Amino acid sequence: MRAPLVGMRSAPWILLSPFIGVFVVFFAYPIVQSAILSLQQTFGPAHTTFVGTANYQNAIADPLFRKAVRNTLLYTAGGVFIQLPLALLLAMLLNRPGLRGRGFLRAVFFAPVLVGVVFVGMIFGVMFEKRTGLINQSLHSIMGWDLDFPWLQNFVIPSLIIASLWQYVGINMVYFLSALQNVRQELLEAATIDGAGSWDRFLHIVVPQIRSVATFVILLSIVGSFQVFELPYVLLNGTAGPDNRGLTVVMYLYQMGFDQGDLGYASAIGWLLAVILIGFALIQRRLASDSSRRARA
Asked: Which CATH superfamily is 55-296 part of?
């Protein structure tokens, strides 16, 4: 009986072994190697020098890194404070009872997320052109806008926000729409009978019931915004724009690692980015927890 018992005990590990192997090879080992590499200065793939925390200290003192963080924060703020409220507004409009063409409108708003980021960058690169660009041409026809308005020269971050707004507002709308469809209608009807206005119903009934989805969407938007690379890279033709106005953290990491060849410094930037994102996640979790406790009280 002992042999079958041993076989039963080892069966779970045998079944888990493919996952464990893939996890170690493609996740755990690269993470450990990246942490080790961040403590070294590299001169090509075969020449490294241990420098301790010097890469982190240099990155924190690096004005270009600080500018990349500032640009990324501005881009993230646009995603959180412009894109998400607009997505919620669209979701509330599509959630209205008796709305005709609901399925068609959902498909229209959701479709841009299916377009590749590179293609979006190419499209908006043409649209933001001076003189011939669709945006300047349209604004000039409507309100006498300057045809030579320099979107991609002086207003790179607003241009990135507009492009990402077009692509991602639909997917966030779908998240909010699924949450709104699970709001308890009897509570809304009871509040209406008690004389509560639209804003009061939204603030005290709808918001508490969609809080978990909203927290998820906000965190997803922050993480995605801090990882932006393809859109500015394509929109600005492989550069960071004039005076590095379009430089993001991941773009700077790419420049240091692949253009400059200093993989150690690039790894340090990557770990600093991870720390920033973990900080945002912890802050958001704390705020969501405090808000939930106040709602229950």
From this structure: MetI-like (1.10.3720.10)
Provide the token pair at 89. 């507004």
Asked if the model's pLDDT at residue 157 lies above 90, the reply is yes
Nearest Cα residue to 178 out of 108, 92, 107: 92
Residue type, 41: Q
- The answer to whether 106 touches 189, Cβ cutoff 8 Å, is no
SS3 label, residue 297:
coil
Number of residues in the chain: 297
CA–CA separation, 259 and 125 (whole Å): 23
pTM for this entry: 0.88
pLDDT for res 291: 64
Closest CA to 72 of 271, 249, 254: 249
Output the pLDDT for position 15. Answer: 82
Report residue 24 as tokens: 């170690």
Whether the predicted pLDDT of 192 surpasses 90: no
Judged against a pLDDT cut of 90, whether residue 188 lies above it is answered with: no
Answer whether 95's CB lies under 8 Å from 152's CB: no
- In order of 208, 218, 282, 289, the CA distances from 286 in angstroms are 16, 14, 6, 5
CB within 8 A of 38, min separation 6: which ones?
55, 56, 264, 267, 268, 270, 271
Question: What does the pLDDT average to over 109-132?
Answer: 92
d(CA 270, CA 125): 28
| Phi and psi at residue 38, to the nearest 5° | -65, -15
